[in-house]
C-alpha cells in the first residue's frame, strides 16, 4: 500500500511539472514577441518603454526584463517618421524671393535706399516710406519732397502685376486738429493720398489698388522715444503676393 501511494504521488508530481514548464515557456515566448515588437518601433521612447516594462514586471512579481535598457536607447538614434522635419506649408516661395530681389535692386538703382526700406513675408513685399518724406506734420497732402519718391514707386509698381495695398500708420500722439480728429483718420487719409497719386499721376490700374489706415495701433517699434515715434509714422506700399496653387 505504501509503495503504491508513493508511486501515485510521484506520477502526479511529474505530470504537474511538465504542464507548468509548458505554460511558462509559452508565456516567455509571448513576452519575447511583445518586446521584439517594441524594439522594432523606432518611435518608442525610453520612458514609454520602461513604463511598459515595469508594468509587466509588476504583473509577474517583479520578473527581470527580457530586453536591457541600453538596447532601447540605441533605437532612439534612428529618427522616427513622426519627427522628421518636413517643409512647412508657409515656407517662402522662391518666386517671392525673386520678386523681393528685384525690388531691392530697383531701389538701389534709383538711389532710394536712404528713403525706403524693404522687407517681405509670405503675404508680399513691403516698401516702407517715412512720413517726413511724403507729408508734413499732421497733414495728408503730399509734400513736394515726396513727389520724386512716389514717381519712382509708381514705376516700381508698374513692373509687376500684383495687387497693391497702401497702408498708413501714425505714432501714439493724439491727433485733434481742424482736419483730423483721430490718428485713424490721418493714417487712412495719407494712404488714400498715395493711392490717388499712383492711380492719377502714374496710371496704375485702379482695380489693383486699395488703402488701409491703422492709426497708432500697429507700431513697428515701441512709442517710447521721439526717434521711435518718427519711425512709426510711415506709409507702406505692399505688393501682394498670391501663392500659386499646385
From TrEMBL:
<dbReference type="InterPro" id="IPR006665">
    <property type="entry name" value="OmpA-like"/>
</dbReference>
<feature type="domain" description="OmpA-like">
    <location>
        <begin position="122"/>
        <end position="243"/>
    </location>
</feature>
<dbReference type="Pfam" id="PF13677">
    <property type="entry name" value="MotB_plug"/>
</dbReference>
<dbReference type="InterPro" id="IPR050330">
    <property type="entry name" value="Bact_OuterMem_StrucFunc"/>
</dbReference>
<comment type="similarity">
    <text>Belongs to the MotB family.</text>
</comment>
<dbReference type="Pfam" id="PF00691">
    <property type="entry name" value="OmpA"/>
</dbReference>
<keyword id="KW-0472">Membrane</keyword>
<dbReference type="InterPro" id="IPR025713">
    <property type="entry name" value="MotB-like_N_dom"/>
</dbReference>
<keyword id="KW-0812">Transmembrane</keyword>
<protein>
    <submittedName>
        <fullName>Chemotaxis protein MotB</fullName>
    </submittedName>
</protein>
<feature type="region of interest" description="Disordered">
    <location>
        <begin position="210"/>
        <end position="229"/>
    </location>
</feature>
<dbReference type="GO" id="GO:0005886">
    <property type="term" value="C:plasma membrane"/>
</dbReference>
<keyword id="KW-1133">Transmembrane helix</keyword>
<keyword id="KW-1003">Cell membrane</keyword>
<dbReference type="InterPro" id="IPR036737">
    <property type="entry name" value="OmpA-like_sf"/>
</dbReference>
<feature type="transmembrane region" description="Helical">
    <location>
        <begin position="20"/>
        <end position="41"/>
    </location>
</feature>
Amino acid at each position: 500500500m505504501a509503495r503504491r501511494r508513493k508511486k501515485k504521488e510521484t506520477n502526479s508530481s511529474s505530470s504537474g511539472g511538465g504542464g507548468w514548464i509548458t505554460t511558462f515557456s509559452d508565456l516567455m515566448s509571448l513576452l519575447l514577441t511583445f518586446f521584439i515588437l517594441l524594439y522594432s518601433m523606432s518611435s518608442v521612447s525610453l520612458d514609454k518603454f520602461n513604463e511598459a516594462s515595469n508594468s509587466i514586471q509588476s504583473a509577474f512579481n517583479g520578473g527581470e526584463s527580457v530586453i536591457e535598457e541600453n538596447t532601447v536607447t540605441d533605437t532612439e538614434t534612428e529618427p522616427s517618421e513622426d519627427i522628421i522635419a518636413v517643409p512647412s506649408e508657409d515656407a517662402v516661395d522662391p518666386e517671392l524671393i525673386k520678386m523681393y530681389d528685384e525690388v531691392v535692386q530697383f531701389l538701389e538703382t534709383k538711389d532710394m535706399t536712404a528713403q525706403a526700406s524693404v522687407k517681405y513675408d509670405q503675404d508680399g513685399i513691403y516698401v516702407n516710406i517715412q512720413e517726413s518724406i511724403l507729408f508734413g506734420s499732421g497733414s495728408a497732402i503730399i509734400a513736394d519732397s515726396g513727389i520724386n519718391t512716389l514717381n519712382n514707386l509708381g514705376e516700381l509698381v508698374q513692373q509687376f502685376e500684383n495687387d497693391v495695398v497702401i497702408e498708413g500708420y501714425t505714432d501714439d500722439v493724439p491727433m485733434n486738429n481742424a482736419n483730423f480728429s483721430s490718428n485713424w483718420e490721418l493714417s487712412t487719409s495719407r494712404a488714400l493720398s498715395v493711392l490717388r497719386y499712383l492711380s492719377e499721376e502714374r496710371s496704375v490700374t485702379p482695380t489693383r489698388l486699395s488703402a488701409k489706415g491703422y492709426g497708432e495701433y500697429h507700431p513697428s517699434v515701441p512709442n517710447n522715444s521721439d526717434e521711435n515715434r518718427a519711425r512709426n509714422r510711415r506709409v507702406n506700399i505692399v505688393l501682394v503676393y498670391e501663392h500659386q496653387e499646385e
